[in-house]
Every structure is written in C-alpha cells, then in structure tokens.
Amino acid sequence: MARKIFKRVGVRRDRNLSDLSSTKEGLNNLLDTLIDETGNTFVSEDLDPIRNIYAEGLSSGQYQKIAGSRTQYTKSNGSNADFKPAITYQNQLDKFEVFSGTPRINGGNGLTARYYNNDDIDISQVGIFTGTAFQQDNFWEAGNFSWTGKITPMSDNSNGGIEWEGYFIPTITSKATFHYDTTASYTFEFQTEGADTYTEHMRVGTVPVSIGGNVSLGGTFTTSASAAGNSITLTTASKRVNVAVGQTVTGPGNIVAGSKVYSVSQTGNTVTLVHPDVTEPDGGTPAVTGSYSNTSTTFFSDTGVSTRKTYQTYVLEEYQKYKIRIRYFVPRWRSTSSTWQEINSDSQERSAGFDISRNLGSTADHLRYNELFSHDYDFSDESKGKFPIFVDNSILFGGTTTSALGSSTNSAEYVKVKSTKKIDIKYIPPTSLSAITKASHSGTTVSGTPVIVVGSTTGIEVGNYVFGTGIPDGARIRKVVINEYVLIDTNTNSTGTNTHTYIDHRGFVKRATGSTSGTTLTISSGNTTGLKSGMIMICNGSTKYTGITTTGSTTQATMSESQGHGTRALYFYEGKGLRNDSLLQFCQPTIARCISLDGNVAAGNNVLTVKSIPAEVSNGWVIRGFQFDTDTTITIDSSTQITLSKSTINDLLSGESMSVAPNANGDRTLCCPPVDTSPPFTPTEEGLETSTNFPNLKINGGNIRFDEINVTSTGINIVNYTDGDTSNRYVPINTPSGNFKLLATT
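The chain above was modelled as a monomer; its predicted structure follows.
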C-alpha cells in the first residue's frame, strides 16, 4: 500500500507560539489583524496595562462596574472628550499618594508575618522560635485564621508557628482591648508604656504538664482561696499572663474536678472559675468548695481546645504608632531524656482569631489589616504627603507654640499679613491669679508618655498650660477626654500622682518664681528671657494690671506699681492683644530713631522742642511724617531742641512720636507710629473730616476704604441727573452690593 506523505506548514497551536523564532513578533502579527484603522497598530506593548492581572475572585459583572469611568474633560462646545494620553487609575492613585503620602491612618498593610517549621520551635525559649523563618509576608486580612492543613503550603507539616510583628495605630485616644482566641499555644506583647520596648501580656501553653498520664500544656502555680465560691488568688500576680479563659484547673481538693477558668484579672491576681455543671459562675454551684492556702494549682489545655485571653492597654494616643508582637505555634519541647516531644496536630482543630475593642465599653470587632503596619513600614517625614505636612504646620484649635510669623532677626524675610476684613481681637489682659487659673486637679502620670489620667476635667481647655510635678515646663493641653484623661504636647518626665495646675493660655508668656519689693521684681528661679516692657505680671496678691519694664537684667524688672510679695509663682501675660515685633530689625537704632515732641507746635514752625535726642541721631537726618514737607532735614541745636530745614505743614501735638533716619535708609516712619493718626483729616466725635487748611482732598493713586461716607455741601452743587446733563468726571465707589459711579463735572 502506498505510503501517505504529509507536509506540515505553520505552527502548532498547543505550543502557544513557543516554536517560533520570535514569540513577540508572532504575537504582534496576530494582534495587528484585529484593528483596521489607518495609521494605528495593535502590538504586544499595548497589553502591558493588563499583564500580571488575574481574574481570580472577580466576575465580568464586577469588571463592568468600572466601564465608562475614564477621566474626561469638557470642551468649549460643551461636549466631553478623553484626555490624551489617557489618565489611568494608576495615575489617579499616584496623585492621591502625592496628596496623602504613605498612609499612616487606616492605611496599614498588615503585620509582618514570619513562618516557622516545627523543627524551629522550642517552647522553653523566650522567643519560642529558634531557627530562621522560611517565608515572610503581610497576610492578615481580618485577623481570623483557620487551617485544615498546613499554615502555608511551604510548611513541612501541619505543625509549626507564625510570628506577627509591626505597629498598631489607633484612630481615637482611648484604652484599647485586644482579644486573642486560639486552639494552639501563644504569646502576646505590646509596647511598654513610656518606652520603646515590649511588655509580655500573654504566654499560654508553654509548659508541658502531666495530667492522668497524658501530656497537656499549661503551667503550675501557687494559689489560695479565702472561702467557698468561684475565686482563687495567684500568689504571684505576674503569673496571670500564663492563665487563659477556657483552661481546666486541677490541684487542691477544694477545687471541683473539671472546673475551668472563667476570667482572669487584668491587673491583679484574681482568677474566677466556673463549675463544670454550669456555664457561668454560680454561687449555688461553686467551683471552690472551701478555703485553702498556698497550694500548687495546674492550669492546662490540649492543642485543639480553644482558650482565650484579653489585654487592655494603657491610654493610647490617636494616630501614634505602638509596637505589637504576636505568636501562634503548635508546641515542641525536650523531655527529661533530652528527646524532642511534639504534638501531631493533623486531626486537631487549628485556628487563631484577633479582635479589638477600640474604646472603653465598646463591643469587640475584627482587628483588620488596615489598622496594622508592617515591621519595616515607612513612617519617615519624607514619605508624608502634602496634606499631612499642611496639618503639621497648621494653627489648630487651642492656638500654637509658634512665636511669630516670619523672621524675627532678618527684615528681608518679613511676611506680609493682609486681611480683607476687620481683625477683631477680643483679648483682655487678666487681672488676678484666680482669673488665669482654670483648674487644679490630681492626676497620674507615667514617665515618657503624654497622658495625665484625671478623675475630673472640669475647667480644663485645649491649649491650657499645665504645671506640676512630672510636667515639663511649657507643656500645653492638646486633647481632653472628659473625666478620663488629658494629653499634653510633650512627654511627662516622672511617674506618680500629683496635683497639677492648669493656666489660661490666652496671652500667656511664661512662668517664673520670684518676689517683689517696691517697684523691683526679682526672679529667683527662671530668668527674664522673653519678657518685654508693657507686659503684665500676675501672682497671688498682685495689684491689677501690674506692668513691667525690662532693664536688661536677666533676673530683675521694674514694676509700674509699688508692692511687696514673698517668693511665689509669677505669671507673665501680654499687656495687649496684638504684639508687633516685625520692626525690631527694620528699626535698629543705627537705622532709625524716634524723637518725642515736648509741647504743641502749630503748622508753619521750624523749631521743635523734644524730650531728648538719642545719641545715634546726627545732623542731616531726615524727619518724616504727615506734619513735615518732603526731604525735611534736622539740625541739632541742643539736647532738647532741633531746627528743621523746612517749616511744618500740619499741627503737632505734645507727645507726638517722630521718625528720623539717614536719607539713605529711606522712609522709616513705621518705626515711630504717630500719636495722632488723623492727619490729613481733623478728628471729631463723629469721625474724621477734611481740615480747614486742606478742604479739598486729592487722592493721587490708591484707594480709601471706609464703612460709611457722608458728603456735606459746602459750595458743591449736588443735583439729580436729568436728560441732557453731561458729566466728564466720576468717583468710582466699590461696595459689597456692586460697583457704582458718583457723577461729577469740572
């Protein structure tokens, strides 16, 4: 029979282009046939946005939810068009990240999970795991785990363990309660209050105990009972970390066989038991039949039997990170013969569940991954986004510690502050110690933490300064949790319970300790740094509005009223609501000086009598102000008299402050604010009016802003516009209701 001859042409489909010399070119040839638009192509690179995307867990309906959600813009004709190049979801996520930065609040990636095989477990070791983790990830989700086989496919068998480590960030300031429920052995550690270390709060199932010839895991401790009932007392309170709810208890004959642990004290040494015949402690069916003293008692459970334990934290500060470390493991230990002993967990129920109560009295909920952050999470300032940086630099409720806007040492770095509306300063200088003392309460502090635990928060406000033992100087209240605790803006420096005083922060400058005698104020603890003339001093028994004048001394100042007090706390406050230090560098003595007029001077005079002439002032300096003509210079006649090169053009009132400066330094009138601010107008009880010397007001550029204007006709004809009238002049008037024109003629 003749042999059939076949000739193969092309490639085999089952080899997925692998028999081509260039798989990419082959794919391009197939893809490009799917598009028939002139000038456009469809090639392999066009598939990059969907590479490494898997459809697992997603249906076509879920993909369709994002159909038509592309970013568009509206053209001038009102139609929408796509951005080119297209704005992808990744582009938008990148924009969000620039704004928010690396998430620090509810943006966690889960704790760092390290997986260990059975051979790396030794329950006699503090750290439990002795070897190196064979796998690491951040798998956590809702913190509820259940295994029917290996804890991870890479494990040697169903035994082994996991160590989770990282940070927990609360979103509210409060105590939190962690709940740990598992069928294996476990440990739980949390950051030590006021320190960067761990404190262990759970260590359950780490000691093998013999029960009826079988080995279980637990621990044996000395306990006592004062009477029949359901409570026993651990001789060593710290052993409570080894006792868990659900463990079986055996030991003294006064404990009913089969009784279990119902609850464990969080801070003390009390363990509550429950009789095996009831579900809750019942006085009629006690688990303890009588008193006993200092007797060995064993608490135990088997792998596969659920036990649970809780830990209530100290007060956690919102948005701050706290270290956390959790372990889960099937126990492995050495027997007395030095051979390794272990439990075969293949047939045992194996699970671990973590819940959290985020506030006192709240119900427990899942501890989700977004509240937990990996061990190597980036919390650096460089990873902050625009919004966190904005918040960090914002003036929040209660004020700020910022002393000034702009530079206080370099006039070139001044910051211009402009308001489109009036500034309403409601500050009234306080008059007594009772007026500034907001509260005085007993509080408990732990060194290194910002929390003061108080029984009452009455009178305390955010922003208040707080003084007392354990409180650093200058500490302020930044959060108040009613009748629970307050948070300050720094860490306390001692541990204990003391009385703290809360002082009003409005206008507060500093506190020192000192005494007064006559007009002299002497500081014995502290110094005069930060004090300025015009501020007021308040102490127990001080006179109202006691003003101070600084003298250059670091320990003394002069008071405006004579009084005498023994050594006591001195509080210094601003004497007015707004302190302008912006001119300190602009008006240095070598740049500009102020001269105070002694006696009234009418317009048209060129000889002025002054109270004194500063040593820095020289002949030829220019004097400026509304009362002086342009480029008026001075000649010093004596220590109290100067002659002007040009006569005054406006009246001067006694006490008027006049600015003089070298001509090269320019206009320095800001250095000497005038006493009379009415020129070129005349002051009246109703307001300002044009003077008789200057009845016609001319504005050469700029604007005049006023709340109300009244025009009185003095030779001016005010008439209504009628048909045929003409006007070649107008006065523009801009108001909140619109812009108007006041018509005029020459």
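The radius of gyration is 41 Å.
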